[in-house]
């Protein structure tokens, strides 16, 4: 604490330890450590060598290049932290923002894979492999109702959903998943129609209903533009 006071640091971040299996905890640990970088540098020189001695039992004292590497990793880790907070909120509906957060993560990882920073690129490549390995199993790891929630969101609808799926998967898997989503939507409508028969008016046929959904689609290019604006704000 004395080193923080001497360096006149006013950060409200807390120092915490990492949990190896959670990227969120890694982000919080590195963010807090980076905020107190000058205090750590001062501690190395002001505690009689105890701090340096303890760190040399593992990987040693952080060098300037290590701090720079931490700073370069934070934007990539932050998107996971922010997305987790948004989709796990308990005071508002989150089902319709799930897909946006998922695609936002996917888009950022793809961009970081192409980074000129070799360390960032390697880290993003590792993330992409794990990301793709999990999400490519659309039969077991994809909840179709989360796509339905986006379709029923008047700001997104079918056009955005199809665009997002095609951003996430290659053409073959994307078509398969789009067909599954449409079939699920059709089944839900049929069930609702069966359990809620009309009193007087004649209900539209399923095909008419799906055509209406398609007609309400926003243009895919507009959806992409809107989404890119959202990504830039992350």
TrEMBL record:
InterPro entries: hAT-like_transposase_RNase-H, RNaseH-like_sf. Residues 88-192 form the hAT-like transposase RNase-H fold domain. GO terms for molecular function: DNA binding. Signal peptide: none annotated. This is hAT-like transposase RNase-H fold domain-containing protein. The lineage of its organism: Eukaryota, Viridiplantae, Streptophyta, Embryophyta, Tracheophyta.
